[in-house]
Amino acid sequence: MTQLTYEHIHKTLAAQPLFEAKSWQLSPTPWPLSGDQVTQLEAIGSACFEFHQALETLYLRSAAGKNLLRNKPLLAPWVADYLDRGKPPQLIEHARSSKNRGAFPTVLRPDLLLTDEGFALTELDSVPGGIGLTGFLNRLYGGETDPAILGHADAMVKNFHASLAALRPELSNPLIALAVSDEAATYRPEMQWLALQLQLMGKRVFCVRPDDIFPLGPSVCIDVDGNPEKIDVIYRFFELFDLANVKTAHFIFDAWAAGEVSVGPPMRHFQEEKLSLALFHHHLLQEFWAEALSGRALKLLRGLIPLSWIIDPAPLPPGAVLDGPRIGGRALNDWRELAGASQKERDLIIKISGYHETAWGARSVVLGSDCSREEWQQGVERALELAPSNLHILQIYKKPKRIDHAVFQSGLASKGAVEAVEQPGRLRLCPYYFVIEGQVRLSGALATFCPPDKKIIHGMQDAALLPARIVAG
């Protein structure tokens, strides 16, 4: 395996910036993954897809007031109430449409923290950034010639397209519009790069702003070289909370209803709520998950997803207790009692479930063990205040383990050749799975290697962003 120089990586990235006004640390080598870890990643992808299939069943049966189990009474209308909370009626109606039955995200990206006990799955993103970046890094680190790169031979680029083209199997080369909203503008350069690579492969893929889309009869179109071209597939690179700012949204909904355009990921809000992870652990739903999931997926997800709870301030009758952590050795009767948790008991994370501008980029995350008592109390109070429209979840904090990896000392760039030094840090691994005709394909992984003092791992200036490479052992 050839190690890359700082000069080569820096020059290549400078010539093709993948994020708007973003930078990160560089490393000479990809992140190493063992064969066993890759096998586990394959299983995680299949389990995540099963989870989405089961979640659809759970939501639709709850919304319809149907029994959740085959041969035993189990009604849970509160599930749909949780997932629908704060959503506009039109979006709820669309998500429940029979035409949407079996429509799942085309891309699945779990956030996996590497802990002393193995991987911990803290989020499952269906509108993820990093697709173009990971494809670009795979190439940069030798993925065109090194079969050990996870996602070599342009798997990220090719399978991204295949997952969208599969939405219109009757067309040999559908026109695909990658619609990137202004809210998601940071990621527009990587989507433009993806579109260009696919055009070079002869695919009709264009990166556009939602406002570039216009109606023509029952269809929606974009301008291609001065001519209106009908869109066959829209890749929706914007969150559903942002729909109110997408002026052409009603044209997209109308064209979808007319069967003129397919949209991936589907505009189904319940697929984008973090509280689905709390539903997985809810004590009243354990029989449902055991029936809806395969034994292998159930066991795997139970070991991966940290205990999570929905912060619902609905009043309890006297003597009742909350399904939540214990504080001061006793069960909670009111979520406000979280504010009195000791520093040790605050190994907990509060984060908004979804459908909100702070629901991505770790902007709503409050880590109890890494903040003052006052900040923790404010986080609890905010979660309770927003609950009527935006639910929060409480999740056990799984601390990533310390591990070493070589990182360039970029601060020395002005003094000549930059050397890489083994540094301690913590890892978040984001594998990318593309769903193609019901099959899940692991196509690459983006490793975010942060300094050890960073408790919450996400893309940041201090982190190194790397592709993954399979190594022996």
Q: What secondary-structure arrangement, pairings included, does this model have?
A:
Blueprint: H1 6-15, E1 31-34, H2 35-63, H3 77-84, H4 89-96, E2 107-115, E3 118-125, H5 131-140, H6 155-165, E4 176-180, H7 188-200, E5 205-208, E6 214-216, E7 219-224, E8 227-230, E9 233-237, H8 249-257, E10 262-264, H9 275-281, H10 286-292, H11 295-304, E11 308-311, E12 326-327, E13 330-331, E14 348-352, E15 366-367, H12 373-386, E16 392-396, E17 403-408, E18 420-436, E19 439-450, E20 464-466, E21 468-471
Parallel strand pairs: 1-21, 4-5, 4-9, 9-10
Antiparallel strand pairs: 2-3, 2-18, 6-7, 7-8, 11-16, 12-13, 14-15, 14-16, 17-18, 18-19, 19-20
Task: Please provide a written account of the structure.
- With 473 residues, this protein is α+β, with helices and mostly antiparallel strands.
- 29% of the residues lie in helices and 24% in strands.
- It has helices at residues 6-15, 35-63, 77-84, 89-96, 131-140, 155-165, 188-200, 249-257, 275-281, 286-292, 295-304, 373-386, and strands spanning 31-34, 107-115, 118-125, 176-180, 205-208, 214-216, 219-224, 227-230, 233-237, 262-264, 308-311, 326-327, 330-331, 348-352, 366-367, 392-396, 403-408, 420-436, 439-450, 464-466, 468-471.
- Strands 2, 3, 17, 18, 19 and 20 form a 6-stranded antiparallel beta sheet that branches. A 4-stranded parallel beta sheet has the order 5-4-9-10.
- Strand 9, helix 8 and strand 10 form a beta-alpha-beta unit.
- The two termini are 16 Å apart.
- The mean pLDDT is 93.
